[in-house]
Design goal:
Layout (H helix, E strand, L loop, with lengths): L1 E5 L5 H13 L7 E5 L28 H10 L7 H13 L11 H23 L3 E3 L10 E5 L7 H11 L4 E6 L2 E5 L4 E4 L12 H12 L7 H7 L14 H6 L1 H14 L5 H10 L11 H8 L25 E5 L4 H6 L6 H12 L7 E5 L6 E4 L2 E4 L4 H18 L3 E5 L1 H8 L5 H4 L4 E2 L5 E5 L2 H5 L4 H22 L1
Parallel strand pairs: 1-2, 4-5, 8-9, 8-12, 12-14
Antiparallel strand pairs: 3-4, 5-6, 6-7, 10-11, 13-14
Helix pairs in contact: 2-4, 3-4, 14-15
Length: 483
């Protein structure tokens, strides 16, 4: 049995040199015992390592770069089995076994687990290191000096020190830990694997951190499990604001209730200033009553149904007030809701291309929708279109009727079943009435076709081309009826 004694503080070179010697001698992993000075309390020196006898035909098989990268991470772990694990993997690869890509291999699983633990420790150190400034002696000028204390789980100081050099390049700093230290003086980055004692870093800034944390804490958004995963308790002892956390968690529910009570009774911040500023702004002259502009302004404040609660704004009709043709769609989509204009999204693009192919100028049409607010279902960051129900269509008909009375179009085009129902309360299949003129009251003519969004949903390219061509024919027919 061979015994190898290492410092074992994250230095890949000392393990690699020893491993090469034993590998070259063909020593099997189960015949090597790897120890560190910390394991033996320093009773034996590094010179006590038993070196194997060289062999005539040493194993010289190379290893892939991926293993060296993995080993450089694993060697920083505090698990005492890391050396034997890496030597076992090295021995297997040196004898022609390619297993690094096998995710279920026990050695690969163990090594990856250690490497991920190193990554988490690195991340936590970059997140929770808290520097305290050390005042310069009176009368001495120079760069500002800072010191911090952190307690990593593993020997990561060499790995993480370059991050702090890049991040805090303009100041002198020292980071001390039980597993080594790092310092930067503006020119040289130095690291040491010698353990350090915790300094007394308490000062007046601790109260500032507690005040800051108490003011940014939002009990209504408290998620204890997520908070504990991001900031585990083991880091709390070195964060002055952490002593507030238990009390904040315990009182979170009562705080939310109190916030709700205040929100219902207190004005918004700067409310009085907003009111004073608004009072100084002269009221603009409104549009003349009985005009399309007055109707559009009135529709901006529409609350006839619940759709206004979620929509960004009312999307009113636009076009010449004396247009011969009024195009009526279903409702605004996502882009229309944001822009405040009808038919500017994907369906609007299809409509524009069809109108252009038919040789008609879109600006000759008055274009509107049966429903003036966007109805949708939120899914993450997306807003998915939802079809308006009959009650919402009936409530919004009040606006459509007034648009018809003011514009007085000769031809009204219903694009889709919702528009058809809004204009006539008919629930016929669209195909039964599509493409043929229908007489309406006041001498108007109704023409029914599909909504352009229908064309966007056709998956078969051949059928889609046919339907687009048919839609263009409908637009051509609309042009003839309006002339």
């Amino acid at each position: 049995m061979y015994r190898v004694l290492l410092r074992g503080r994250g230095d890949l070179t000392e393990w690699r040199d020893a491993a090469r010697a034993y590998l070259a001698a063909g020593i099997a992993p189960d015949r090597v015992e790897w120890r560190t000075m910390d394991d033996t309390d320093g009773l034996f020196g590094l010179d006590g390592n038993q070196l194997p006898e060289p062999v005539d035909k040493p194993v010289t098989q190379g290893v892939p770069p991926a293993f060296l990268k993995l080993a450089a991470s694993v060697i920083c772990h505090s698990d005492p089995t890391r050396f034997s694990l890496l030597y076992r993997m090295l021995f297997r690869m040196a004898h022609g076994r390619n297993f690094l890509g096998m995710a279920t291999d026990p050695d690969v699983v163990a090594a990856n687990r250690m490497s991920k633990s190193i990554g988490r420790d690195y991340h936590k150190m970059t997140a929770f290191v808290r520097f305290k400034e050390i005042p310069l002696p009176e009368g001495v000028a120079g760069r500002r000096r800072f010191v911090s204390w952190f307690e990593p789980d593993h020997f990561i100081i060499d790995r993480v020190a370059p991050f702090f050099q890049r991040r805090f390049n303009d100041m002198d700093w020292l980071i001390v830990t039980p597993r080594g230290s790092a310092s930067w003086d503006g020119e040289t980055l130095r690291t040491s694997d010698e353990p350090a004692e915790k300094p007394d870093l308490r000062d007046d800034t601790d109260d500032l951190w507690r005040t800051y944390y108490a003011n940014i804490f939002n009990p209504a958004r408290l998620k204890v499990k997520m908070m504990m995963s991001e900031m585990p308790k083991k880091y709390w002892k070195n964060l002055p604001e952490a002593e507030l956390i238990p009390g904040m968690i315990a009182s979170a529910e009562a705080s939310v209730i109190e916030m709700g009570r205040k929100a219902a009774s207190e004005p918004l911040a700067f409310h009085h200033r907003i009111q004073e500023a608004a009072a100084r702004v002269p009221m603009p002259e409104g549009p003349t009553a009985g005009t399309i502009e007055a109707l559009r302004e009135e529709a901006r404040r529409c609350t006839r149904c619940d759709l206004h609660c979620m929509a960004t704004q009312t999307v009113f009709g636009e076009g010449p007030v004396n247009a011969k043709v009024m195009i009526v769609g279903e409702q605004p989509g996502d882009q229309e809701d944001l822009a405040g204009r009808p038919f500017v999204g994907p369906a609007g693009k299809v409509f524009n291309e069809a109108v252009s192919a038919a040789g008609i100028d879109r600006t000759q049409f008055y274009i509107t929708n049966a429903v003036k607010h966007f109805k949708y279902e939120p899914r993450g960051k997306r807003r998915i279109h939802q079809k308006p129900n009959m009650g919402e269509v009936q409530q919004c008909r009040w606006w459509l009727v007034q648009e018809l009375d003011l514009v007085q179009p000769k031809l009204v085009v219903a694009m889709g079943a919702t528009a058809l129902f809004s204009l006539t309360e008919m629930r016929h299949k669209l195909e039964d009435v599509r493409g043929r003129p229908i007489a309406m009251q006041n001498g108007r003519t109704l023409f029914v076709t599909v909504h352009p969004s229908y064309l966007l949903r056709i998956p078969d390219l051949g059928r889609k081309a046919e339907e687009v061509a048919r839609f263009i024919e409908d637009i051509v027919a609309i042009g003839r009826l309006a002339s």
